[in-house]
Amino acid sequence: MRILLVEDERKLSAIIKRSLKEFNYAVDLADDGDEALFIAESNPYDLIILDIMLPGRDGISICRNLRKKQNDVPILMLTARDDEEDKITGLDSGADDYITKPFSYPEFLARVRALLRRKSTEKTPQLKIADLELNQLTRKAYRAGKEIELTPKEYSLLEYFMSNVGEVITRTMISEHVWDGDFEAFSNVINVYVNYLKKKIDYGHTKQLIHSMRGVGYIFKDE
């Protein structure tokens, strides 16, 4: 899951990013409202954590602009304002949830998980191709009824493959969804992780699901 964190307090931003990365979320940062809107419109995110008070464009304006353009990414407002009117304004602008600083990190992470679950349940929670099944709610994978032990990064990669069955998936597309914005798309890391996943998914099975396309990327299909 890829998250955009928009927060101009750098110390707080670093702490939040660290706490999110401990749960293997890919996190991009922005500390300016205009930059944040540009990044949010340019990249696919699973969640945006958005402070209201920002240099340049404020969080309310960012949220409204995204919703006007039919961007339905879940948005968690993060702000020092705790007046009821401010909360109503934030939610009416299109935010999905609202948490006030200072906050407890267990509650914050619980809200993040809830919004990500809500997005997952809007899709089919159970992905299936051939005899491979992936449950996006329990985050467990099975092939021919046998559970496959996956690392968090392998799970994210498999979820992305299974959400795009039959489509050509480039390394850049993988880096944009599974890793954060600082990741180099053409490093060897993606190849390494795809090979790890291929061994766990395809080894010992007649039907191969992960197919390499020389010079292009990969395609996940049943053949």
CATH superfamily of the largest domain: Response regulator
Rg for CA atoms: 19 Å
- Structural class, from helix and strand content? alpha/beta
Q: What CATH first level of the largest domain would be assigned? A: Alpha Beta
Count of folded domains: 2
| CATH-scheme architecture of the largest domain | 3-Layer(aba) Sandwich
Q: And the CATH topology of the largest domain?
A: Rossmann fold
Written description of the protein model:
This protein has a five-stranded parallel beta sheet, sandwiched between helices. A four-stranded antiparallel beta sheet has the order 6-7-8-9, with helices on one face. It is elongated. The longest helix has 18 residues, at 105-122. It folds into two domains: 2-121, Response regulator (Rossmann fold), CATH 3.40.50; 126-220, Winged helix-like DNA-binding domain superfamily/Winged helix DNA-binding domain (Arc Repressor Mutant, subunit A). α2 (33-42) packs parallel to α3. It has 223 residues and is α/β, with parallel strands linked by helices. Helices cover 41% and strands 22% of the residues. The mean pLDDT is 87.
